[in-house]
Predict the 3D structure of the following.
Amino acid sequence: MYTAKQAHMVRDKIPDADLTIYYTDVRAFGKGFEEFYNRVKGENVNYRRRELDDPIKVEQKGAKAVVKAKGHPDIEADLVVLAAGLVPRNDSKEIARILNINQSADGFFLEAHPKLRPVDTFTDGIFLAGCCQSPKDVPDTVAQASGAASRATDILSKKKLEIEATIATVNEELCRGCGFCVEVCPYKAIELVEKDRFGHKVLVAEVNEALCKGCGSCAAACLNQAIGHLGFTDGQILSMIKVLGEK
């Protein structure tokens, strides 16, 4: 749509300009975008469709640039503009690792839920706004930034924050410090710390209660069954199953 906007601006400033746009697919998804697209086409802007596997060639011919596209006549142009697609920054993977946030298949940062938590990430206190999440125009970016600011204000306005009640807990006597729980925790809520046990220094897992979301990944990975959940011990769960079976 930015290409259509630029073509419209050129037509406004240079009424007799010969404008041609080569495209593979046009998706006018936003409010009023389809109407604007049709308006630009009605301003004598030539839209020429090309297949993705048929690259456009640009060759120099004196002061002109010759544009060659399969299935279309060659064009001698004064100016050729490449409408490049938007891609994530090169350091986005490193930022995602530092902040412990997820990325989509195309490399953009991933929200916690597209409808229920569109500006939240899986790490509390980190919110998304703008093109770090996906390509956006200015109105969508401003709207999302307002939502992210509102979510941040909601946290900063509270004197105390509520955390998950069902969090992981470690039985230090059973823990052997293998570190499997540290590797599988998606919230980086577990670390190995050095403790004194019978006069010897040993490594045991320790849960950061403020970061833990009680997902259960650590409990499933623990080889020694040293990690459980508050309020959901094996004995409690088995008792619930027994009662359900009796009914």
Helices lie at 2-13, 33-41, 92-99, 138-156, 180-184, 217-221, 234-246. The chain has seven helices and nine strands.
